[in-house]
Amino acid sequence: MLYRTAGQFKTSYTADQALFPVRQDAVLLGVILLFAYVIFPLTASEFAYQTLLIPILIYALAAMGLNILTGYAGQLSLGTGAFMGVGAYACYKLITIFPWMNPVVAILLSGVFSAGVGVVFGIPSLRIKGFYLAIATLAAQFFLVWLFEKWAWLYNYNASGAIQVPNLEMFGVYVSGPQAGSTTQYYLVLGIVTLMTLLCINLTRGNLGRTWKATRDMDIAAELIGINLMKSKLIAFAVSSYVVGVAGALYVFMWKGAAEPNVFDIPLSFQVLFIAIIGGLGSILGNYLGAILIVGLPVVLNLVPAAVGLSISSATVEHLNVMIVGGLIIFFLIVEPHGLAQLWRLIREKLIIWPFPH
Amino acid sequence: MKDAQGYVTADGRQIGGVLMEMKNITLRFGGVVAINDISFDIREGEIRAIIGPNGAGKSSMLNIISGFYTPTEGEVFYKGEIRPQMKPYEVARMGVARTFQNIALFEGMTVLDNVMTGRLTHMNAGLFSQALWWGRARDEEMDNREHVERVIDFLEIQNIRKTPVGRLPYGLKKRVELARALAAEPSLLLLDEPMAGMNVEEKEDMSRFILDVNDEFGTTIALIEHDMGVVMDLSDRVVVMDYGKKIGDGTPDEVRGNQAVIDAYLGVAH
Fold it and tell me: What are the alphabetically sorted keywords of the record (chain B) (predicted)?
């Protein structure tokens, strides 16, 4: 009843292709944005910021980048962690070389570097696809992490080999480094992620999105209807790596505060890939749902035993965590291989016709 | 009846000059000769059929026209000029669109999006314009949507335009594929077995659409088909292939009376 679309007529193609052709979708999004921009910042604790809100946004952004490449353009990648690393290191170098640079500008610029690296490592995709391409991107993963370790210039030759985020100011407020407040950082992350999401939605619903999906669904037919596959794939790598790189910069500058090379190793790539798969490949919304599940679940699992008065050692909780998350991943993949986004799509379809069955 | 400037068909349509000419085309895969020294032309506005028994090399010929294969020997002339070696997408951008023997739609997309991909060659807004959904990208999207809707209207698939292609039955998929090819406003439309696997009613519909396309838009059509009834009724001229060689070329009536063609189809005692 709430979601009924009857009576919402479109009289122009512009209206039909608007971002939210169904009024309820716009209302729902408005409510979510209200929560994200007003209610969460008013109520969130430091713990909530650091374990839920900020990481969910950053992981969702990273997954969105990967989703453009894997979900939309159909090119499987296992190098996401390394591309995030490129973004983080690029941002670190930009900030240390140009200390006067606005941190937000530096973060947005650092994606350009990872886009460049992504295109280089995307070149094999012109000849190979599927699992073989995944192996090629795995090479990027190992090579780049090795580079982060060995190329001392990247971390300014400091003894620890890690990058440490300095205190950065923007309009007189600390936005990163030890002195920055979580609320400020949250708003910055939220702003950037909102902007990126909007851009990604536009790209994927327009001509480029169709080009990518055509490349994904049937590359031979795509070429025969006039798609330059090389261009389509390399643009996908560039855009994807850009978004992933920005996510990497946010990861270090707005959340972790410091990072060693091995942070960007393969577990990070897998985590982002899981978010994208569980959330739903070929969907923008799915990245958020996946990130909420993957980031939120361990937190909930940690809190539940204490809340109900069970005293379980933290090591046991950790193990339980891995087992439950693993089990859930398998469960979701069996129940809904197209991810949480598809689940929402089905629910929405049912809601539109509810209470009638057809 | 036939001259350099074209000819008039039995039903009174004026056929124009040569649009595409295949000159001494040979295609070899290693030792296998798929196409052996074949020449023929396709004239503007005509419906040209390529027929022959299985394995005759028809699809290979279509693949050469659409640039998917490069002929081992021989030349392709397009609009009077020799066509250099090209990638398939470049050929598509020159105005050659096609459908496939085994439906090659983009299953994960809706009918509308599939047909919109046919307009790719007409859209060239930049990355930033598209990301912002502003200016050129938006205008292009709307203009091309309008065009696509005309095609959707023409092929009577309005009611399924927002349906994911994966959910459609076979016959409709074939029609959507035709819509995608038509959306490109091709000067040459290649149809690879447009009636394969259809029942009589669906074949009648498809034949009607093919004739209407040719009639309404003046599109030149080259098609491969196994249903002889359909071929003889639809086409203006027919090329007959067998074992990679051309064994007949002419109007349906001429071809029907050709002894080599009859032998190829019915077999001869050795």
Answer: ATP-binding, Nucleotide-binding, Transport
CB distance A83 to A248 below 8 Å: yes
Of the candidates A221, A227, A282, the beta carbon closest to that of B108 is on A282
User: Which residues of A fall within a CB distance of 8 Å from B109?
Assistant: 210, 213-214, 217
Instruction: Quote ipTM for the complex.
Output: 0.87
Interchain contact, B118 vs A225, CB within 8 Å: yes
Which burial class, exposed, middle or buried, applies to B33 when counting CB atoms under 10 A from its CB (0-12, 13-18, 19+)? middle
- Quickly list DSSP for A247-260: HHHHIIIIIISEE-
- pLDDT of B1: 39
Residue A7 has pLDDT above 90, yes or no: no
Answer whether B106 sits within 8 Å of A235, measured CB to CB.
no
Q: How far is B56 from chain A (nearest CA, A)?
A: 22
CB pair distance less than 8 Å for A208 and B127 = yes
Is CATH 3.40.50.300 what the domain over B1-95+186-270 is classified as, yes or no? Answer: yes
For the ranges A17-26, A81-90, B240-249, which has the lowest average pLDDT?
A17-26
Q: Is B2's pLDDT higher than 60?
A: no
CB–CB contact B104 A210 (8 Å) = no
Look at A66 and A324; give whichever has higher pLDDT.
A66
pLDDT at B4: 61
The residues spanned by each domain of chain B are 1-95+186-270, 107-185
Question: What's the CA gap between A92 and A86, in Å, rounded?
Answer: 10
Q: How close A225 gets to chain B, by Cα (Å)?
A: 6
In total, chain A counts a number of residues equal to 358
